[in-house]
Amino acid sequence: MTAQSPPPLTLEAARDLQNMLRAEIGPGLSERELDAVEARCGFIFSADHRIFLSAGLPHGSPRWPDWRNGDPKDLAARLSQPVEGVLFDVEHNSFWHPAWSPRPAGTPDALQIARPELAAVPQLVPLYSHRYL
Question: What Cα–Cα distance (Å) separates residue 76 from each residue in 3, 4, 57, 83?
């Protein structure tokens, strides 16, 4: 038996989800705004995330990324947090992914290998607080 993918999120279902949130919901992002964020930040929203943000833009808490009017430095920091977290673990906690070449003895050399490896993986996009997609 093969698992079926869930159906794509609809605007109505996204609005129902947003009604359950403890957040203010502002007007959704237009297709033009979504495209501009993707171009500016260098990633592509998933289809469900696009629908969710089109249905309404959660705000009123710094935990929600402000894709419309957010500080570009804050958004860049949020986008870099997952990679920075892995690099921290390479440097301080001996993390090393098994698919990478053998770990060098020196931490600077390990970081020099880890950075391009992490640059080659898909961008994680912040949803809320420390939750990413």
Answer: 36, 35, 19, 12
**pLDDT tens for each residue of 10-37:** 999 999 999 999 899 999 999 999 999 9
20 shares a domain with 4: yes
Tokens encoding 33: 């705004």
> Is the domain of 90 the same as that of 31?
no
Verify that 32 and 92 share a domain, yes or no.
Answer: no
Judged against a pLDDT cut of 70, whether residue 1 lies above it is answered with: no
Domain contains 59: yes
